[in-house]
Write a structure and sequence with these properties.
Blueprint: H1 6-11, H2 14-25, H3 36-48, H4 54-80, E1 93-96, H5 103-111, E2 116-117, H6 121-125, H7 141-155, H8 159-162, H9 174-177, H10 185-189, H11 193-200, H12 205-224, E3 231-235, H13 243-249, E4 254-259, H14 262-280, H15 285-310, E5 318-322, H16 323-328, H17 330-341, H18 347-359, H19 379-385, H20 387-394
Helix pairs in contact: 2-4, 3-11, 5-18, 14-15
């Protein structure tokens, strides 16, 4: 029996969403990649289950339409420039770990190596170029992204302490995965249990293939500006649960795997999801507990899948970095990972990394405050859910 609100039902009608994207873009070809089953599962959950307020409905509806428009525009560019699909992504370095384990810092330091590409936040948010782009001029997507970041921080100032928001800095490609409608992004915004359960059982190959296509497009765009480099530096906690799919899609990928006690990370990361749930729903204690426990369960599921998957590959493809070591001596730890992957740490790369550290001290950001209880979590529960992982990677370091 349906329990969704009339407002939700009106906001998330598939035919209307598709028609609006076509109308906004003036395009009609979504390309050959399959996405409708995933989109339809998401919109069903948003219609029938999501406890959204008016702002939440508006934001999530807009994101779906934007994803559809992105697919239309990317396909239009590929039709005009089929050479986009000839771009070689090569062997990316992929920084993977639970949130709050130093992944953002490590990605940004590695990306400061002038030999490496990374997705800037504005590129992950708006990967499709405007139709009339002049590659010799500043990209018109940048001021739009900067305004959006400013709006996010104004709406929820706590975000400054949770994540180093910067439209011009490298960031994770979770928002690129979002355009496949197979990603963790929607469940970070609200409670949609049917979609959440469904994506956990799916083959994510279509999502990762589309991610590769978007990276090919972004690399081609960078090439138009004369920006040609050796490899990509990717980063997303999402990849923890999909090592097999990641390696199948990016055959030469090497992983920097970050480690920190989940007791120190889960509640902290849950606060980001909780802040969105509060902004887009009613912010009740019940919702905050749901947000916290869903994040804990997702990270435990992903971490356990990662531990199993890595057994199937050569150990040299995984460089394990512990949070405190990376915090104290990140360049030394990256040098060790580079050596393991057969990458030379050049003087130029080291100097760029040292400059990034000097320009980005952690103390510029306000402290992040949260509690287990606020998100329905307990230290005992986290230890139980991550028992095997903690025995292998955390307890030996305590």
């Amino acid at each position: 029996m349906s329990s969704g609100s009339a407002e939700n039902k009106a906001a998330f009608q598939d035919a209307e969403l598709l028609a609006e994207a076509r109308s906004n873009s003036g395009l009609s070809d979504f390309g050959p990649d399959e996405f409708l089953p995933a989109m339809e599962k998401l919109t069903w959950s948003l219609r029938e289950e999501a406890p959204l307020n008016e702002l939440g409905r508006q934001i999530l509806r807009t994101r779906i339409v934007e994803s559809l428009e992105t697919r239309l525009r990317i396909q239009h560019w590929i039709t005009r420039h089929p050479e986009i699909l000839d771009e070689e992504i090569g062997a990316p370095i992929v920084v993977i770990g639970q949130a709050r384990t130093g992944t953002t810092m490590l990605q940004r330091i590695i990306a400061s190596d002038p030999r490496n590409h990374a997705c800037m936040w504005w590129e992950t948010r708006f990967p499709a170029p405007h139709a009339d782009t002049d590659w010799s001029q500043p990209d018109p997507r940048i001021p739009i992204a900067e305004a959006e970041v400013a709006a996010i921080l104004e709406a929820d100032p706590r975000q400054k302490s949770i994540h180093p928001w910067d439209a011009l800095a490298p960031d994770e490609e979770i928002m690129l995965l979002e355009h496949s409608f197979l990603s963790y992004v929607p469940e970070a915004f609200c409670n949609i249990p049917t979609y959440r359960s469904w994506i956990s059982e799916q083959d994510w190959t279509p999502s990762y293939r589309y991610l590769k296509k978007l990276l090919q497009s972004l690399q081609w765009q960078k090439r138009q500006r004369g920006n040609v480099r050796e490899r990509w530096v990717l980063k997303a906690p999402n990849h923890l649960g999909f090592i097999d799919t990641l390696f199948e899609t990016f055959e030469g990928a090497n992983v920097v795997l970050t480690h920190r006690d989940p007791v120190e990370t889960i509640a902290s990361a849950a606060s980001m999801n909780g802040s969105y749930w509060a902004l887009y729903g009613d912010g009740s204690p019940e919702q905050m507990a749901q947000a916290g426990n869903q994040w804990k369960d997702r990270m435990a599921w992903s971490t356990n899948r990662c531990m199993e998957a890595r057994k199937r590959y050569d150990a040299s493809r995984f460089a394990d970095l512990w949070f405190l070591d990376a915090l104290k001596k990140p360049i030394e730890e990256i040098t060790r990972a580079y050596a393991q992957f057969g990458i030379e740490m050049t003087d130029e790369a080291r100097a760029a990394m040292e400059q990034w550290r000097a320009d980005n001290p952690r103390e510029k950001r306000p402290p992040h405050e949260y509690s287990f209880e606020e998100y329905g979590l307990s230290e005992e529960g986290i230890k139980a859910d991550f028992a095997e992982y903690r025995r292998e990677f955390i307890e030996p370091r305590l």
